[in-house]
Design goal:
The structure is a single chain. The longest helix is centred in the first third of the chain and has 20 residues. The strands form seven sheets. The chain has a seven-stranded mixed beta sheet with strand order 3-10-11-17-14-13-12, with helices on both faces. A five-stranded mixed beta sheet has the order 21-20-22-23-24, with helices on both faces. The chain is of the alpha+beta class. It contains 15 helices and 24 strands. The protein is globular, with a radius of gyration of 25 Å. Helix 4 crosses helix 10. The protein has two domains: 244 residues, BirA Bifunctional Protein, domain 2; 92 residues, Anticodon-binding domain (Rossmann fold, 3-Layer(aba) Sandwich), CATH 3.40.50.800. It binds adenosine-5'-triphosphate.
Length: 440
């Protein structure tokens, strides 16, 4: 049974709890009572989130020769958002419940107030989701700036720069990872929907005639990325948007959805944006944003296929899919069966006792492993308790240094999922563990 809600109706609470208790995710500004569903990523969370983003970058940029990276500014002038259509149309329908006065996004509540069950609402008003601020000390029109609500526009505004400096030709892509901001009406479900979040977006520029082929290709490629990193296929599905639900720029959108505890919901959207963005920015800026193909002597505006994922939302999905409770030696344990590439720590080094001679060997082991793996070092409490603590945060391998290690220069490597233990020579430990990690 893989439906997490069926598996355990308290799954969401348990995961939220674990992430707070073990230092993955804290409510932001907690000592001041918290701040409107913003979150801070603690020592383990920052490590895992970084792994999620690194794996995306590896798959999308490093291991491909048709995609390059970019890191554009978060602050941008109104002209960008006028051209992109965001000033006009990046809105959600806002309604007030006439019974309890709570505010909701009309399209998310199915006509019933989630707070009081009321069914009468005000007329929907279009609420723009962009955060507006000012650049510089003088207020006024010229000083207005927006925090980007998506990373994509920084890619379109740099299209000509990238084309001129990399000599890429369609089909090619530009990838970007970074913070985006949306003044969501109802942020909810932990880090699923927050006002500040991280996105992993790639704009793939193609000859118009190839757009449909690449659209299908990216839906499958992105779906497979989640499966490769450990999400069971049964917890994923594709959701094709109906024509009438498409965003203003889209000629077709398919979401990769994950089975969250409240049901299937969006993990990533793959859209065929046509030539909408480049044409808009070319018209508004007066700068040509097209491609001259020397092979055919033709000039055309490429179409764009965009896989747009959320890093923080993906991390939440990986945590939910990994959470398991089982029994080891008659004892109940919580274990995060995270793919080793995503786990906050790859290895924990555990000296059996605090004796200085064990500590010395354990530190030598730690020094050897640290250049290759993210390591934890834990010397407090019984070894059984320490294993449990590492299981709970998903550490795939525990390396135990015991008194025999002083004689045989070997350690015990324990596997998180099977709890099987093998003896490995310290000299061969890096290679042994590297071979266990999925190929990179
Ligand atoms: P929704 O309709 O749920 O508001 P969207 O379809 O507008 O979201 P996109 O613009 O396609 O979302 O954003 C791409 C990805 O960015 C989403 O699939 C999601 O993973 C992530 N994302 C979007 N908004 C948020 C948010 N408020 N908090 C966390 N992640 C988000």
């Amino acid at each position: 049974m893989t439906d997490p809600a069926e598996r355990d109706p308290e799954l969401l609470d348990k995961v939220v709890n674990l992430t707070k208790r073990r230092g993955f995710i804290f409510p932001s500004a907690e000592i001041y009572g918290g701040f409107r569903s913003t979150y801070d990523y603690g020592p383990l969370g920052v490590s895992m989130l970084r792994n999620v983003k690194d794996e995306w970058w590896r798959a999308m940029v490093q291991e491909r020769h048709d995609i390059v990276g970019l890191d554009a500014a978060i602050l941008s002038p109104p002209a960008v958002w006028a051209a992109s259509g965001h000033l006009e149309t990046f809105t959600d329908p806002l309604v007030d419940c006439l019974t309890c006065k709570e505010r909701w996004r009309e399209d998310k509540i199915g006509g019933v107030c989630p707070n009081c069950g009321g069914t009468t609402f005000t007329e929907a008003r279009a609420f723009n989701l962009m955060f507006k601020t000012q650049a510089g000390p003088v207020e006024g029109e010229g000083a207005t700036a927006y925090l980007r609500p998506e990373t994509a526009q920084g890619i379109f505004t740099n299209f000509a720069n990238v084309l001129a400096t990399t000599r890429k030709r369609p089909p090619f892509g530009i990838a970007q990872v970074g913070k985006s901001f949306r003044n969501e009406i109802t942020p909810q479900n932990f880090v699923f929907r927050t006002r500040e979040f991280e996105q992993m977006e790639m704009e793939y520029f193609v000859p118009p005639a190839e757009a449909e082929t690449w659209y299908a290709y990216w839906i499958e490629t992105r779906f497979a990325w989640y499966v490769d990193l450990g999400i069971p296929e049964s917890m994923l599905r594709r959701h094709v948007h109906a024509k009438e639900d498409l965003s203003h720029y889209s000629r077709g959108t398919t979401d990769v959805e994950f089975l969250f505890p409240w049901g299937f919901d969006e993990l990533e959207g793959v859209a065929n944006r046509g030539d909408y963005d480049l044409t808009q920015h070319a018209t508004h800026s007066g700068v040509a944003l097209d491609y001259f193909d020397p092979a055919t002597n033709e000039r055309y505006t490429p179409y764009v296929i965009e896989p747009a994922a959320g890093a923080t939302r993906a991390m939440m999905a990986f945590l939910l899919a990994a959470y398991h409770e089982d029994e080891v030696g008659g004892e109940r344990r919580v274990v995060l069966r995270l793919d080793p590439r995503l786990a906050p720590y790859h290895v924990a080094v555990l000296p059996l006792s605090k004796k200085p001679e064990l500590d010395a060997v354990a530190n030598e082991v730690l020094d050897r492993l640290s250049p290759h793996f993210m390591c934890d070092y834990d010397v407090t409490q019984s070894i059984g308790r320490r294993y449990r603590r590492q299981d709970e945060v998903g550490t795939p391998w525990c390396v135990t240094v015991d008194f025999d290690s002083l004689e045989d220069r070997a350690v015990t490597v324990r596997d998180r999922d099977t709890t099987a233990q093998v003896r490995v020579a310290i000299d061969g430990l890096v290679e042994h563990l590297a071979a266990l990690r999925p190929p990179r």
